[in-house]
Amino acid sequence: MPRPLRPIDAGLVYHVINRGNNRQKVFRKRADFAAFLDALAELKERKPFELYGYCLLNNHFHLLLKPTGDASISRIMQSLLVSHTQRYHRHYQSGGHVWQGRFKSPIIQADEHLLTVLRYIEANPLRARIVRRAEDYPWSSYRAHGMGEADPLLDPLINYQELARRAGDRQRKWADKVHAPLAEAQLAAIRRSSASGLPYGGQAWVKRLAKRLDLDLTIRPRGRPRKSAEK
Predict the structure, then answer these.
(1) Model confidence pLDDT, tens digit, residues 98-109
(2) Which of 69, 180, 188, 201 could form a disulfide with 48 if both were Cys (CB 3.0 to 4.6 A apart)?
(3) Complete domains list, the chain, with CATH
(4) Rounded CA gap, 52 and 66, in Å?
(5) Dihedral of CA 172/173/174/179: which sign?
(6) Is 179 left (phi over 0), alpha (psi -120 to 50) or beta?
(7) CA 183, CA 221: separation in Å to the nearest integer?
(8) Taking a C-beta distance cutoff of 8 angstroms, is the pair 118, 74 a contact?
């Protein structure tokens, strides 16, 4: 049986990434960021999913989410991107592609790997040197996890709750994690997963997942395959 275009199964958590077409700016001003988050909130009512983290930057976004209803990750993201694109064209009186092709949505193992990806997502403005402190960037989920601010978009993440019993201690631990650079191996693994769409998790878990969902874990070069040289 052929594998689906995207892995679909109950309880999967996805790291969703998409960029502006030709890496152009998609979020040009505060109202653009706010409109995208409003669209995300409205979509949660129609196509239920749990949202664990997010970060919007000028030309791309990261979401960490788990579908909980009948809608697949493809339908959820299609609805979100179509809604945002329509708003973008109305507002800027433009046409054409806003987003760069298909979004990436690698599956994330729901253990310490999930926290590592959340940490990666919320540290994006730091790595990009947009701000010196994560709390100074308003368009991510960091303020909820690192400062305890209420964010109605977010759902409880059990791995985060296990950092410490007291909320203040959890927030301090999380702040330390986000502001400390990720190990090079972790950073490389997350980027490899983001670029290829392959699952991010422990080796044994990835193998079990691939077998259960009939996933091809081969990373192939882009473009047409090379022709073998004639002898």
Answers:
(1) 998 789 999 999
(2) 69
(3) 13-210 (3.30.70.1290)
(4) 8
(5) positive
(6) alpha
(7) 26
(8) no
